[in-house]
Design goal:
Number of strands of chain B: 10
CATH architecture of chain A: Orthogonal Bundle
CATH topology of chain A: ABC transporter involved in vitamin B12 uptake, BtuC
CATH superfamily of the largest domain in chain B: P-loop containing nucleotide triphosphate hydrolases
CATH architecture of the largest domain in chain B: 3-Layer(aba) Sandwich
Distance between the termini of chain A: 16 Å
Number of strands of chain A: 2
Number of helices of chain A: 13
Helix content of chain B: 25-40%
Radius of gyration of chain A: 20 Å
Radius of gyration of chain B: 18 Å
Shape of chain B: globular
Order of helices and strands of chain B: EEEHEEHEHHHEHEHEEHH
Number of domains of chain B: 2
CATH class of the largest domain in chain B: Alpha Beta
Structural class of chain B: alpha/beta
Oligomer: heterodimer
Number of domains of chain A: 1
Strand content of chain A: under 5%
Shape of chain A: globular
Chain lengths: ~325, ~250
Amino acid sequence: MTAVASDKQAVATPIFRARVLPAIILAAFALLPPLAMALDDSFLVFFAIRVMIFAIAAVSLALILGFGAMVSFGHAAYIGLGAYCVGILAENGIWEFYISLPVTLLVCGLFAAVTGAISLKTRGVYFIMITLAFGQMAFFTATSLSAYGGDDGLTIWGRTEVFGSSVLSDRTTFYYVVLAFLAGAWWLCATLVNSRFGRVLQGARQSEMRLQAIGIEPYTYRLVAFVIAGMLAGISGALLANAAEFVSPAYMTWHRSGDLIFMVVLGGLGSFAGAVLGATGYLVLEEVLSHVTEHWRLIFGPFLILVVLFARGGLMGLIPGGKRHE
Amino acid sequence: MSEPILTLDGLEKNFGALRVTDKVSLDVLPGEIHAVIGPNGAGKTTLIGQISGSLRPDKGRIVFAGHDVTQLSMDKRARAGLARSFQITTILPEFTARENVALAIQARQGHSFHFLKNVSKDEALNAEAGRYLTDLGLGNRADVHAGALSHGEKRSLEIAIALASEPKLLLLDEPMAGTGREETDRLVEILNRLKGRYAMMLVEHDMSAVFALADRISVLVYGAVVATGTPEEIRNDPKVREAYLGEEAA
């Protein structure tokens, strides 16, 4: 009898997680610009763009961290790489998205393929350390790019163009473009984890030995996931460069990588809705606290520790039906 | 017909100065259950490791289904048709029993670089996984998370996973380990039912299970095979009685 009851629960839960919650979150983002206009609060739109951009990066990290147990401590490098692709191309007079987007994907994909191929030979703390090292390598390379601003970063005098038109300069248009990228990245990652590929990825997280025993060597699958995550984070970087009209090595510091990991953990591991909520919660809290006091990190730090200690499922754990298992 | 499915030819393995596998040569014929017994520390687990590919022998050859697999990795041997169960239950606890078996079927069907189709809606795959589970008496537990199954059910699930890869040889590493009398009887009955359909190498501590199931038994002592024969021959072998059964007979 109890088996039947828990089966029913198990059926109801995924529908909420997979369909209802994402729809609510995306609808909330979609309705924000008119609401901000009604409130005459343009900062809200500006801030939400930033949230969505980091949400894309958090979703991409959730793919490898939450579903593949790959704790990459260098994920911000891809945000930086994506941003620099846009910045450097613009500096050289190339503004078109149909060039900058493929270049971003190619550069981030290659960087992920090479560093991933090496990093994925290791496990646990070593994987964390080696991804951190590659991230720092990218950071220091960016600071030494004196032709493109070095330490000071690089101002971009405009936004990426779409077939010669500068539609992205309109804030509302840009907002919905970012939202579309978020929805697309989310859909892609959710589709991936539910596919045969995703099963291998999630199986490998639970027992590598079991997979080898049925004839699957997880390495290549992990690497492909790592590359996809890197490319998606690269897109978030390209969007960030457009949002800020500025590129800086600061985008790829290890603090940023840590922030991303925290967003994913705060939201709840093993859920893309969690990653989006985590990114939102993290940035909102950072924003609010930094207005309250200049020593906001003194409050933020302990709060993060409390979340990790006591709210194991993250924000998703607080939502009814949001938990992974009952 | 009597061409062995698995042949071990002079396997040797040392851990430092300790010889854990000492010139082991034995074979498994098609449809046969060949049991390997031996006291604790006889090197049974190390031997299983070398056959399945998680360990490399220092010397000797492993021929499986007519091919030398000595240098092949575990996943390649699995794809060649060598399925194993583990002494310590190794399942995917967050997946349902059905998903555990479906993944083995998926692995057998080829590479898994399929990114878009929702695998949980693959009815043919789910139905096939269900058949293996029903075969092992887990039909009504198919959609329970594997981690929530009882110990005995997990042992059965491991066998279902192994069968789902349609192996040429089943390598069973103490499948009865930690199970109660009733569960052991059930597993013996299941293995008896599978007997003849699959060649099996059974490493097991439970003597009544071994003597009930095995066509041939090899006795491993200090890494070396001291005797191979039918259960009757083994029971009456003075060397075996001295080295192994002696302690129980006394």
